[in-house]
Structures are given as structure tokens and as C-alpha cells.
Amino acid sequence: MIQILTTGGTIDKVYFDANSEFSVGDPTVPEMLTESNIHDGYELRELLRKDSLEMTDEDRQVVFQAASESSFDRILITHGTDTMAETASVLSTLEGKTIVLFGAMQPARMRRTDALFNLGFAWSAVSLLPPGVYIAMNGEVFEAGSVRKNLEAKRFERV
Fold first, then answer.
1. Dist CA 30 CA 104 (whole Å)
2. Which residues contact 37 (CB under 8 A, 6 or more apart)?
3. Any idea what DSSP says for residue 10?
């Protein structure tokens, strides 16, 4: 069984107009899991609905607390990409669990998005990786503490 914790981020964004005003909407993971033909083997828990640039240290502690108190050994966390590496670092002190953070560069509600691929890739990663904290984005897995988002290239890379 896999615990899925949602925190918001681009994956759940809803855009309202051409000026790119947005809000973080309902989690898109349930619909994406159905579309991927995954109907069981997980438990979903919504923690936050925030853009990751608005996440605070207190929010990261909410995520840490939820992961540490979870009875599950395998945990997926949806997260905005801008501060995903920071949250992964906070979680890296947890032992005995396989935790994978993932998100999207384009909202799941858009026609062209990497969200569905990233979910499938993260699902595989959390199922196969040994205990530790990881980021799974765009076909690559990075260990917590050794990754950053390259804003210019719009991708994650090892540091």
C-alpha cells in the first residue's frame, strides 16, 4: 500500500484568465490515478493547497509530521516544483520509509502536461526504491539533498 499526501503546487493549479491568475484547486491525483487504471493499493490524504513558493517552514513541518506518523512505509507526495528540494531535505531525516516527491511543470488540467507521466514514474519509483527520500521528475530520480531546480532550463538537476 502507498500513502499519497497532496500539498498543491502547479500540478493542481487552475488558471482563470490570460493574465495567468491562478489558484490551487482540488487535488488532481484521484482523476490521474483513475486515468492510469490504478484503483486500489493507496490511501489519499490532502495536507495543503499551496503554491510551493508560499510554503513556510511550518508547512514543511506539517508534511514531515504526516509522513513520520503515517503507518505506510511507501509515501508519494505531490508538491510544487520551486521548493520541492527544500521539503525533500526536511524529510531526509526520516528513516525506514521510501518517500518520493513529484509534481508537474504544467498543471494536470492543461492539455499538454507532464503530470500524468510524472505520477506514473513516481508510482514506480516509490514501489521499487529502497528506503530514503527522493524526487522523481521527468524520468529521473534524485536523492534528497543532491538536487535543485534549474529555473532557466525548467528541469531538475544533480548538485
1. 15
2. none
3. G
Q: Which of 10, 78, 87, 113 is catalytic?
A: 10
Q: Using alpha carbons, select from 156, 32, 30, 20 the residue that is nearest to residue 101.
A: 156
Instruction: Determine whether 28 is an active site residue.
Output: no
Interatomic CA distance for residues 157 and 18, integer angstroms: 31
Query: Distance between CA 29 and CA 81 in Å, rounded?
Result: 16
Question: Which cell goes with 117?
Answer: 507521466
pLDDT digits (tens, 9 = 90+) for 35-86: 999 999 999 999 999 999 999 999 999 999 999 999 999 999 999 999 999 9
The CA angle 143-148-151, to the nearest 5 degrees, is 150
> Does domain 2-158 fall into CATH 3.40.50.2300?
no
**What ranges do the domains of the chain cover?**
2-158
| pTM, to two decimals | 0.94
Widest Cα–Cα separation across the chain: 46
Q: Are 63 and 24 in contact (CB under 8 A)?
A: no
**Cβ partners under 8 Å of residue 29, min gap 6:** 4, 6, 11, 44, 78, 119
